[in-house]
Amino acid sequence: MDTDNLSVVLHAKGDLRLEQRPIPEPAPNEVLLQMHSVGICGSDVHYWQNGRIGDYILKKPMVLGHEAAGRVFKVGAGVTHLKPGDRVAIEPGVPREMDEFFKNGHYNLSPTIFFCATPPDDGNLSRYYIHNANFCYKLPDNVTYEEGALIEPLSVGIHACRRAGVTLGSSVFICGAGPIGLVTLLVAKAMGASQVIISDLSADRLTKAKELGADFLLPVQREVAPQEMAKCVEGILGGMPHISIECTGAESCIQTAIYATRSGGVVVLVGLGAEMTTVPLLNAAVREVDIRGVFRYCNTWPMAIAMLASKRVNVKPLVTHRFPLEQAVQAFETTRQGLGIKVMLKCDKNDQNP
Questions:
Q1: 348 burial type by CB count under 10 A (0-12 exposed, 13-18 middle, 19+ buried)
Q2: Element spanning 180, H or E
Q3: Whole-prediction pTM value?
Q4: CATH annotation of 157-293
Q5: How far apart (Å, rounded) are the C-alpha atoms in residues 43 and 295?
Q6: Cα-atom radius of gyration of the chain, to the nearest Å?
């Protein structure tokens, strides 16, 4: 058996290393995966640059990576639905106990959940990785490893659109055309949104949004007040949107989303910004605008796989850069600089294909 388990390990703020780790042995309910494609998320870069996200603080070396797909290499004694050779996408959040959140279907809210590359839990940016078999999903033959890895960010979009109640005929305003804004756009259109307008500071990202099916683009200018931006949204759409989905975390964008949403509509907050944010709460309250939060996702992988297999959603254009695992530091630097959309690391030295 191969002994090469090259892994991308964050030791401390700013200290990212490539190092060999032992190849783990799967427990009865786990599978050992030969990793293939792992996307770099903004949260991976944030841990690298800051050593923490909110209350999650890096205290010991941690393997990064949670947007992942690979091939089953070995199965634990109790695993019956997977076999060596199966291609799978990995759901990175695994409940550790059957608590009230697990029982009522909101296992993502369980306070003790395991989550890849969230301190103290290791991620899967390595050659080999073990994971709970029940949170590994077989990929159809017509879905690539990279598409499988992109199910993780796609799931954020699915969960956000479900929380928002996107349905046939919805008009939707999306703040931010980064990777999460773009997958939210794809999902909103697939769920039947009739009009989607998306805003961003970057002309390149708005161009990508147009390619992916946005009906209207709204370039953001920093000096324009949120209420004026909201008026622009209304003017372009010919009316206020039913739903606004905020994917930046920026205070001004949250304010714009609230002002822009029609009375009785919904604002969903996806982007993570400052702990304390000033928002026009009274404006939302007197117009019965619901403000809903999003924390990751739950019960989304089957829908995402169906969307990809049926070709209702095409995430392939999101991947703009690819690097072999050995060039992980360069890949992280590319992401940090905001170059392209999604940077993908290829972990299998014998198969660098999408």
A1: middle
A2: helix 179-190
A3: 0.96
A4: 3.40.50.720
A5: 13
A6: 20
